[in-house]
Every structure is written in C-alpha cells, then in structure tokens.
Design goal:
Blueprint lengths: L3 H14 L3 E4 L15 E4 L6 E5 L4 E5 L4 H10 L2 E2 L13 H7 L6 H4 L6 E7 L5 E5 L11 H4 L9 E8 L1 E2 L3 E8 L2 H12 L5 E6 L3 E8 L1 H11 L2 E2 L2 H12 L12 E5 L13 E4 L4 E5 L4 H10 L3 E6 L13 H14 L15
Parallel strand pairs: 1-2
Antiparallel strand pairs: 3-4, 4-8, 5-9, 6-7, 6-8, 10-12, 10-13, 11-12, 11-15, 14-16, 14-17, 15-16
Length: 354
C-alpha cells in the first residue's frame, strides 16, 4: 500500500509548525538508541509492498514498511537471500527499521553489512521534500552516496519510503563446526582462518565453544571442513544455533541485565573485563552483560580501534553511543541541518544534540 502522499503531507505540516515527529514502523527496535520525549508518531507500517523484484538482475525494490518476513519469503522462492542476514528482533520487523538501525547478522564480516547492499533510496527530508538517490545497480557513484548514509542514522536524516537492495543466491550447502576452546585460542583461530581462502560465513565463541559456519558449494564446504576439523552440528541444530544467536535468543542474552556491544579490531586479544563475554564476527564484535562504567568501556574500545554501545537495557535517557570527536560531530550536525533544518525527525534518538 502506497502511503507517500499521507506521509509527505504530515511531514510538511510538522515542519511548518516545528512539531517533532517520532518515526515508527512495527516497533520491534524501539529499544535501540536514546530514549526521547514523546512526539507525534509518523506511522510507516502501512506503507508496504514489493515494488520491483528481478531475480535475474539480483535486486529488489520495496517500501519501507514491508516486513522482513514477507521479503525473505519472496527471495526464498527464487533461491535468494539478503546477504547481510539481518536480525528481526520481532516477527513484525520491517526493512525500514532494519536499515535505520543498520543491523546486520552473523554473515556480516564475511559478506558485508546492510549498508553495502543498499543500491538506492526514495526518501523524505525534514522539509517534506521527496528525494531519490542511487539506482538499481552497484555502479552508482555520481555525487554523494546518500543512500548508504541513511543506514544506521535512526531516522534522524530522513524518512525512508522505498529502498533498492542487492540480493544474492543462497549457498548450495551450509555446515556448522564446533571446537572446544578458550577465548584467546578462539580469537586466534577465527583470524587465522579468516585470512585463508575458506568459505566462512559466520563465527562465534560462547564462553566454551567456537562455532564456525561454512557456506558454499558442496566441494568447497567439504574441503574446508577437512582443513578446519571439529565436531559437526546436525543441520537443523546448526540453523537453530545461528538463528538464536542472531535474534538474541541464545542463553547469553537472556535476562534483563544491560547489554553492551563492543566493536573492536578482530585480532584484539581477550579484554580484561569482569563477567561473561560472547564473541562474534571473527572477533570484531563482543557482547557484555551488566552495569558498566560507560566512559571506561568506551575508552577501552577506542584503544582497540573501535567503539562501545549500550545496546539494550540500562539507562537510555543518557548517551548510548560512543562520543564522537569534535570535528566528526560537527560534520554530523551539518548533515542534520542540511537534511532536517528544523530538527523535527527523531530528535535526540542518535545523540542528544542531534
């Protein structure tokens, strides 16, 4: 259902009256980002539907309110998939919310992030103007890459109306291998194997076991299995493990304790932090539970080439993302002023001053 006219009119009226808008899809990712004051809801859930899908051309164009489930079912019929394996975090998850948060799943370090697969967008800026960027092929390099700029911006720069994504064929075979090992050894092995021509598509260490997923042709997967070794998970158990990890249903994520995400250089050795750690993305993504000193955690992450985010739980009225250097923050402010000069789109969701 095309809701462009309704959405555009609401944004224009809000702009004229300087009324803040809270962009809402299905609400499955409301936990992410800063908690902000109540504002007039801009509802995108009914703006849905697949506009254009060409399996032979490996792209799909769809409206932002389209559910991930609908999209993935359509792709599966043609033997294709979203390569960045996004988490749902709720059955009604939409493609717009997924891209606004910039979420990618276990396949991310080996296949690329959500941003890498965005070819083009149709959006509304904070003035209610209809803008289009990019197209339907990878080689769209004229001008600024605004399409990908919107990914992870939490709706602070514009409202996604439509998005064109690159899709890929599903692998012929997938296999999950398990090694009993400690954290330090797991990190070393993940990085060693990532540097070799192996069909890795996911990796994780859960505190006792290193899990590795292989994806590709029968021959390539068999050869990699012979090289890596380890116990083989039953196919259905392997599928369930990666789904539970992606959707935060793994036992590590259970409970209400604050959840922190650290992005660091993959080869970073074990960090001297109390409590349990779960590692993904070849060592590049590390999850921590419990109350932490945010400043100390962010400093530690920066020392190892990354950043720390309060992902879920804890106090989201404060800043939840890594503070930006002054020059970079000034650039963010200039972008916000250019796309949303009256500051009405999800104000404060990303940073208090944005």
């Amino acid at each position: 259902m095309d809701q462009r006219e309704r959405l555009q009119e609401q944004v224009r009226e809000a702009c004229q009256q300087s009324r803040p808008l809270q962009i809402q899809g299905a609400g499955t990712k409301r936990f992410y980002g800063r908690k902000t004051a109540d504002a007039e809801p801009l509802l995108l859930r009914e703006h849905q539907g697949i506009v254009d899908y060409e399996p032979s051309e490996l792209f799909v164009t769809l409206r932002a309110g389209t559910s991930l489930q609908t999209l993935q079912e359509q792709l599966a019929e043609a033997g294709q998939m979203l390569p960045f394996e996004p988490p749902f975090f709720g059955a009604e998850a939409t493609i717009g919310g997924t891209l606004a948060c910039g979420f990618s799943g276990p396949r991310r370090p080996y296949a690329g992030s959500a941003r890498d697969y965005v070819l083009g967008v149709h959006m509304l800026n904070g003035l209610g103007e209809s803008l289009r960027f990019g197209g339907q092929v990878m080689k769209n390099v004229a001008g600024y890459d605004v399409s990908r700029l919107l990914v992870g911006s939490l709706g602070t720069l514009g409202i996604l109306l439509e998005v064109t994504l690159k899709v890929l064929p599903r692998p012929e075979r997938e296999l999950t291998l398990v090694h009993d090992t400690d954290m330090a050894t797991a990190i070393v092995r993940m990085n060693q194997w990532a540097g070799q021509p192996l069909p890795l598509s996911a990796s994780a260490w859960d505190g006792a076991h290193l899990y590795l997923r292989l994806s590709g042709t029968e021959k390539a997967v068999a050869a990699a299995q012979s090289k890596i070794g380890g116990a083989v998970l039953d196919e259905n158990d392997g599928i369930l493990f990666w789904k539970n990890l992606r959707e935060h249903r793994h036992v590590f994520f259970q409970g209400s304790a604050a959840l922190w995400r650290l992005a660091v250089a993959p080869a970073t050795p074990p960090l001297a932090l109390p409590g349990q750690t779960l590692i993904e993305w070849g060592g590049g993504q590390r999850w921590l539970r419990g109350q932490r000193d945010a400043s100390a955690l962010q400093t530690l992450a920066a020392e190892h080439g990354g950043h720390a985010t309060l992902f879920r739980g804890g106090d989201h009225a404060k800043e939840v993302f890594q503070p930006l250097p002054p020059a970079l923050f000034a650039l963010h402010q200039r972008l916000k002023n250019a796309f949303d000069p009256h500051g009405i789109l999800n104000p404060g969701r990303l940073y208090a001053a944005l």
